[in-house]
């Protein structure tokens, strides 16, 4: 079972990203679940969402304490929230940033195996195609590129079905940008 913890701030679409992740997994025949964890429910407050993907029924429903993947949609959380707490020693971290992983999280780069920490300018891609700072689609496609658990097309389809028309297509375009960005790094 792949357990994913998503961190961000209220208004960035963290909960929606978790839901879209499970929808993409369903398209590929996986079992999946997503659920949020809210503190104070306000824009800008730290938000955590969880997702699980497996090839068999998922019976557990508690928060993920030992994720295999951590997605960080807002790097300002790195100094105030233990976003990498419990991360599997062979896990993956994907951070929304223009800067290299060695600059953003040098300690984590040293702790995890080579090629397990990535940065992707997800907000830049979202601003370019959507016109709003909504990094969900690019972060999920970066996850797909890193883990190969999902296909890019499944992530794109999830957003296009949830948001038919221009919004879904713009999210699909941001997903492609991030996927190709990560594949170029690998």
TrEMBL record:
This is Pyruvate ferredoxin oxidoreductase gamma subunit. Keywords: Oxidoreductase, Pyruvate. It comes from the Bacteria. Residues 10-179 form the Pyruvate/ketoisovalerate oxidoreductase catalytic domain. It comes from Succinivibrio dextrinosolvens. The keyword Oxidoreductase applies. One of its GO terms (molecular function) is oxidoreductase activity, acting on the aldehyde or oxo group of donors, iron-sulfur protein as acceptor. NCBIfam families: PorC_KorC (TIGR02175). Gene3D superfamilies: Pyruvate-ferredoxin oxidoreductase, PFOR, domain III.
